[in-house]
TrEMBL record:
PANTHER family: IMPACT FAMILY MEMBER YIGZ, IMPACT-RELATED. InterPro entries: Impact (IPR023582), Impact_N (IPR001498), Impact_N_sf (IPR036956), Ribosomal_Su5_D2-typ_SF (IPR020568). Belongs to the IMPACT family. It comes from the Bacteria. This is YigZ family protein. It comes from Flagellimonas algicola. Gene3D superfamilies: Impact, N-terminal domain. Signal peptide: none annotated. Pfam families: Impact_N. Residues 21-125 form the Impact N-terminal domain. SUPFAM superfamilies: Ribosomal protein S5 domain 2-like.
Length: 202
């Protein structure tokens, strides 16, 4: 079944600090919409912590087709990025980037210790984040002649659609949004009104 709602962050989470044997782990979480946002955020964290040994992170995007990446940034394989990604999964959030900045304190933690530290820092970060539920919307463009305005507006009201943009000239063009699982029903309704051209967007 297609998912039409998902959990994500309301905004960047407040920075958290987790310490283990003098190593400091600073945790961050950010809502993201595209993979291209990841690099600039990670670079900003590197600049903020010039003495940091590692900036490890994981991100996930999408609702039905998920894409994700986990990056150990020089830590032993799968000792940082994957434990962070594990927390993204356990909090069931998407469209999110979680990064943990490590400043080495002089004592090696070993792979087990690193996994534990990165996991804990990511968990604390997501516990401090504001997680919200968002609805996946389908957008439609409606084109029609002015006399049909009433019918269109009535249908929009009936179906509880959100108007995203409108252009009213000799002919009218509206973009409306509907919850994804109601999209087929709405499409069908407008297709029955022959004077109205309806087109799926996105």
């Amino acid at each position: 079944m297609e998912v039409d709602s998902y959990r994500t962050l309301d905004g960047p989470a407040p920075e958290i600090l987790y310490k283990d044997r003098k190593s400091k782990f600073f945790g961050y979480a950010f809502p993201i919409a595209t993979e291209s946002e990841v690099k600039p955020i990670v670079e900003t964290l590197r600049k903020k912590y010039p003495t940091a040994n590692h900036v490890c992170y994981a991100w996930q995007l999408g609702t039905n087709q998920l894409t994700y990446r986990a990056n150990d940034d020089g830590e032993p394989n799968n000792s940082a990025g994957m434990p962070i990604y594990g927390q993204i999964q356990s909090f069931e959030v998407t469209n999110v980037l979680v990064a943990v900045v490590r400043i080495f304190g002089g004592t090696k933690l070993g792979v087990g210790g690193l996994i534990q530290a990165y996991r804990t820092a990511a968990q604390m970060t997501l516990e401090n984040a504001t997680i919200i539920e968002k609805i996946v919307k389908q957008h439609f463009q409606l084109k029609f002649d002015y006399p049909y305005m009433d019918v269109v507006m009535r249908t929009i009201k009936q179906k509880n659609l959100e108007i995203k943009s409108q252009k009213m000239e000799m002919d009218c063009a509206l973009v409306v949004a509907v919850r994804k699982k109601e999209a087929e029903d709405v499409l069908g309704t407008f297709q029955q009104l022959h004077q109205i051209k309806v087109k799926k967007l996105d």
